[in-house]
Amino acid sequence: MLLDFARLGPWRVALIVIALLVGAYLLLPILLIIALSFGSSQWLQFPPPGWTLRWYEDLFEDPEWIASFLTSFQIAAVVTVLSVGIGLMASFGLTRGTFRGRAALRALFLTPMILPVVVLAVALYAFFLRLHLNGTFVGFVLAHLVIALPFSIIAISNALERFDRDIETAAIVCGASPLEAKIRVTLPGIRLGLVSAAIFSFLASWDEVVIAIFMASPDLQTLPVRIFGALRQDLSPVIAAVSTLLIALTAALMALAAFFRKDARS
Amino acid sequence: MTVTDVPIAAPSPVLAAARRRGRGFAPVLPALALVVVVFVIPVLALLLRSVLEPEPGLQNYAAFFASTTYLKVLGNTFLVAGTVTVATVLLGFPVAWFLAIAPAFWSRLLFAIVILSMWTNLLARTYAWMVLLQRTGIINRTLMNLGLISEPLPLINNLAGVTIGMTYIMLPFMILPLHATIRSIDPAIFQAASLCGASRFQAFTRVMLPLTASGIAAGALMVFVMSLGYFITPALLGGTSNMMLAELIAQLVQSLLDWGLAGAAALVLLVITLAIYMIQLRFFGFGQARS
């Protein structure tokens, strides 16, 4: 009755109306940003009086926007590599190790994901003041690595737990060294977990803003810090152009993740 | 949490302990070193400053709980987090229900919208709401053109703006776990209810709600605790006179340089957050919504 859409009776109308409204609530702001980024009104009139690529030109001609884009990309790329590498090792230890306290250790590794990020941001800002790491590339990478690692460990541990270890053992029986078996049999077997670890680690760093606001210096700003600063000044359509590019990137990464999932199924 | 159970020491005693404890500890070391150095030590150091600065003692906590300004911030934080939680339950439940039973095309479409909204950059989404909620923004202009209001509504730089923006951001975190809960219900249960003569309303209140209660509670706790510590959206959509706790911590550090009081406020936020996670861990298992 209640789980059969055709037999919901009058309730079905209510459900459809609410679903439509919430769908619009979730989707329209995103469409609005995209429309405004191509709209010719500096004052964000909607519907736009005309269409233009001016805000994208402004964006690509501004060396500061380009610099922050490159900074964010470099930090996220380094964080992704380190997060997948360290996360892979930690996941092997957590899923196959026999030492005591594995559950506690796993909980510790996941804690940075759970705690309010503002607390970590303030704490790291104070800590990095002493080490002179605020506003440095190394500082950003270390901070974002702590945020990204939980995603990596969750994705890879899950993949390792599902992977049939007998296949690895079979490779060793057939003459492979344990390391060779891990690299040539186990890693391809858990590639889906590795890819999602990489995507989530990249996004964790790329979208991270709270820690970055505290750590950034005028010389080294990530893209979210620059957007945050711009939002505090005015609501220029250039921000709509940046946001649209970010939405496109998100959609592309989602499509990539979906592609790999399909690939794994077939 | 479990911070104290973990060996925090120089590598060699750790390795010795590992040998006693069993195999497979070495690969965990890089991650452990990172989390201890870049997470555990800085956070503990910040919390320690709350009882050490400007002088040893609990005066920071006394000052925090004696100040009407700070208590108001705490009140604002609970008010917004509570309102957002209730709003996400009321909006999220029907949507999760729709997703679970609607024809495949519509359910897939709405599901894609939920995921896209969740993954879209937080600042981009907050920017959209800043544009929408302005005095001369689209919402106010539309309402005035329709003749529903004569003066623009104050929708931004106050708690109303924060609540609207945060409900938007938190909705997916309620919809996704609830969707999983509703999908796991066996439809035969409702056939049984129907055969026994239950009306739709009775089936809803006496079968569906009890079966989804734990999912609702888990989602609500998750949204509530995430809202408590939220910084960006309140900082951009809220006003300076009505702060939330995360903004207060940031301001104590950035403008007032009062590290002792900031540490105290951080501990208050951490204690509330951990207490709620303990409840969740105890009654509903762990991390349903995020994994």
TrEMBL record, chain A:
Source taxon at top rank = Bacteria
Q: Does Transport show up as a keyword for this record?
A: yes
Q: Where is the ABC transmembrane type-1 domain?
A: 69-257
CDD domains from the UniProt entry = TM_PBP2
Q: How does it sit in the membrane?
A: Multi-pass membrane protein
Checking InterPro entries in the record gives:
MetI-like, MetI-like_sf
Where in or outside the cell it occurs: the entry states:
Cell inner membrane; Cell membrane
| Ranges that cross the membrane | 12-38, 65-95, 107-129, 135-156, 192-215, 235-260
User: Which species does the entry assign this protein to?
Assistant: Ancylobacter vacuolatus
Pfam families, per the entry: BPD_transp_1 (PF00528)
Q: Would you identify the family this protein belongs to, as annotated?
A: Belongs to the binding-protein-dependent transport system permease family.
Q: Which UniProt keywords apply?
A: Cell inner membrane, Cell membrane, Membrane, Transmembrane, Transmembrane helix, Transport
Work out whether the entry's keyword set contains Cell membrane: yes
Coiled-coil regions, chain positions? none
Protein name per Swiss-Prot or TrEMBL: Spermidine/putrescine transport system permease protein
Q: What is its main location?
A: membrane
Automatic annotation (TrEMBL), chain B:
Q: Which organism is it from?
A: Ancylobacter vacuolatus
Spell out the PROSITE patterns in the cross-references. ABC_TM1 (PS50928)
Gene3D superfamilies per the UniProt record, alphabetical: MetI-like (1.10.3720.10)
Q: Which InterPro entries match?
A: MetI-like, MetI-like_sf
Q: Does the keyword Zinc-finger apply?
A: no
The listed locations are:
Cell membrane
Start and end of every ABC transmembrane type-1 domain?
74-280
List where the protein spans the membrane.
28-48, 78-102, 109-133, 153-176, 207-232, 252-279
Give yes or no: UniProt keyword Transmembrane helix: yes
Look up the coiled coil feature and give its residue ranges.
none
Q: Which UniProt keywords apply?
A: Cell membrane, Membrane, Transmembrane, Transmembrane helix, Transport
The protein depicted here goes by the name Spermidine/putrescine transport system permease protein
UniProt lists the family membership as follows: Belongs to the binding-protein-dependent transport system permease family. CysTW subfamily.
Q: How does it sit in the membrane?
A: Multi-pass membrane protein
